[in-house]
Amino acid sequence: MYHSMMLFFAIVAEVAGTISMRYSAENNPITGTVAMIILIGISYFLLSKAIQKIPLGVAYAIWEGVGILLITVISNYLFDEMITSAKVFGVGLIVAGLIFINTDEGHDDE
């Protein structure tokens, strides 16, 4: 459970860091860049804790896939970015891939 929580918090930090990147580009370059560097660093640190028990390929796929899904949805609300049918299809493929990876992960996370 600990390693799954580390992966969850790694995803949260990665999403926040990526959103900070967009904030940096539009509003305050220094604050946004500093926040992005710190949050992405925290994300990688937490991911390194998660892969102590979760296979690297599985953890990375979940980290990146869920991150892309969340960033797509959040940027629609925060930055008025359009979610096109192509984006929905692409994110759907990512979610399908995550489901396939997780059904065949074959590990214990305790």
TrEMBL record:
Membrane topology: Multi-pass membrane protein
Transmembrane segments: 30-47, 59-79, 85-103
Highest taxon in the source lineage: Bacteria
Gene Ontology biological process terms in this record: glycine betaine transport; spermidine transmembrane transport; xenobiotic detoxification by transmembrane export across the plasma membrane
One Gene Ontology cellular component: plasma membrane
Record has Transferase as a keyword: no
GO-annotated molecular function: amino-acid betaine transmembrane transporter activity; antiporter activity; choline transmembrane transporter activity
Compartments where found: Cell inner membrane; Cell membrane
Pfam families: Multi_Drug_Res
Record keywords: Cell inner membrane, Cell membrane, Membrane, Transmembrane, Transmembrane helix, Transport
InterPro entries per the UniProt record, alphabetical: EmrE-like, Small_drug/metabolite_transptr, Small_multidrug_res
Quaternary structure annotation from Swiss-Prot or TrEMBL: Forms a complex with MdtI.
Family to which the UniProt record says this protein belongs: Belongs to the drug/metabolite transporter (DMT) superfamily. Small multidrug resistance (SMR) (TC 2.A.7.1) family.
Protein's name in the database: Spermidine export protein MdtJ
Organism: Moritella marina ATCC 15381
Organism lineage: Bacteria, Pseudomonadati, Pseudomonadota, Gammaproteobacteria, Alteromonadales
